[in-house]
Amino acid sequence: MRRFRKCCIIFLLTIILSGCGCQRDMSLATVVEKVEVDVNYQGEALHRIYTKSNKMTAVLNYLRWLGPQYKADCDPEIIPGDEYTITVTLSNGQQEIYRQKTNGYLRKNDGRWENIDPEKGVMLYEIISQMEGDGNT
Q1: For a tag site, which of 17, 23, 94, 106 has the least CB within 10 Å?
Q2: CB burial of residue 106 (10 Å; 0-12, 13-18, 19+)
Q3: Residue pair 76/59 in contact by the 8 Å Cβ criterion
Q4: How far is residue 126's CA from residue 128's CA, in Å, rounded to a whole number?
Q5: Whole-number Å distance between alpha carbons of 65 and 17
Q6: 1-52 confidence digits (pLDDT tens)
Q7: Which residues are 45's β-sheet partners?
Q8: Are 49 and 133 in contact (CB under 8 A)?
Q9: In the beta sheet, which residues pair with residue 39?
Q10: DSSP secondary structure string for all residues of the chain
Q11: 16-30, pLDDT tens digit by residue?
């Protein structure tokens, strides 16, 4: 029953994330070599490496699904809480690093922190906790 529930969650997330209507070109699955996710969630450390297209796409769709963000109203660096680091490695060796803090803030590379919808922010943990990594985890 638990396995069925996990499959349903993954299926629903895939439908929601793929049907979000975002038109930005993130057909990066063709140029993305791997996606690494490091998480410190409620004291639990997780490390996942995804190299299979469907798993990389799930994480990339999540980033796309977050939608428009706006400048954070505080400095998330000083806020204690959960932190996610998503490293997207492209086939040319370039990396894009996304940091998510406390399900409410997101930062790409050295850019500014931006607010995100906390209800959407919590979905990252759901995605990676349901998908085993493809490499060393």
Answers
A1: 23
A2: buried
A3: no
A4: 6
A5: 6
A6: 656 555 545 654 555 545 444 334 444 444 888 899 988 877 778 899 999 9
A7: 40
A8: yes
A9: 46, 84
A10: -HHHHHHHHHHHHHHHHHTS---S--GGGGTEEEEEEEEEETTEEEEEEE-SHHHHHHHHHHHHHT---EE-SS-GGGS-S-EEEEEEEETTS-EEEEEEETTTEEEETTS--EE--HHHHTHHHHHHHHS--SS--
A11: 545 444 334 444 444
Closest CA to 109 of 121, 100, 124, 96: 96
User: Tokens in use for 87?
Assistant: 């490293």
Q: Please tell me the distance from the alpha carbon of residue 132 to that of residue 11, in angstroms, as a whole number.
A: 15
Distance CA 114, CA 99 (A): 10
Q: How large is the greatest C-alpha to C-alpha distance in the chain, in angstroms?
A: 43
Q: Cα–Cα distance between 13 and 114 in angstroms, integer?
A: 23
Contacts of 1 (CB under 8 A, 6+ apart): none
Per-residue burial over 56-76, b if 16 or more Cβ lie within 10 Å, else e, is bbbbbbbbbbbeebeebeeeb
Single-letter amino acid, residue 77: E
